[in-house]
Amino acid sequence: MFEDPHFVTKVKNRWNEKRNILQQTFANEGVIQILADDIKVSADYNFIKWPILGTYV
């Protein structure tokens, strides 16, 4: 898809629209840890059900 100039232009435009809000959201160093904590239980259950952690799939 990235060989299509129209698509590349659309992606770049969308990135430029959203870049500032993403930078502001993730500039707070604690945000990533909060998000990781939120999904930890689900991730743990995922790897209990499908023990593929560290395995190339």
Number of helices: 2
Radius of gyration equals: 17 Å
Main sheet record? none
Report the structural category: mainly alpha
Give the helices and strands as they follow along the chain. Answer: HH
How many domains? Answer: 1
How many beta-strand segments?
Answer: 0
Q: How far do the termini sit from each other? A: 24 Å
Q: Which residues sit in consecutive blocks of at least 5 with pLDDT less than 50?
A: none
Helix proportion of residues, in percent? over 70%
Percent of residues in beta strands: under 5%
Average residue-wise pLDDT: 91
In summary, what is this structure?
The protein has 57 residues and is mainly α. Helix content is 77%, strand content 0%. The protein is flat, with a radius of gyration of 17 Å.
Describe this structure in words.
The chain is mostly helical and 57 residues long. The chain has one domain (5-49). 77% of the residues lie in helices and 0% in strands. The protein contains two helices and no strands. The chain has helices spanning 5-27, 29-49. The longest helix is centred in the first third of the chain and has 23 residues, at 5-27. The radius of gyration is 17 Å and the shape is flat.
Characteristic terms for this protein:
single chain, 57 residues, mainly alpha, 2 helices, 77% helix, flat
Itemize the secondary structure elements and their pairings.
Blueprint: H1 5-27, H2 29-49
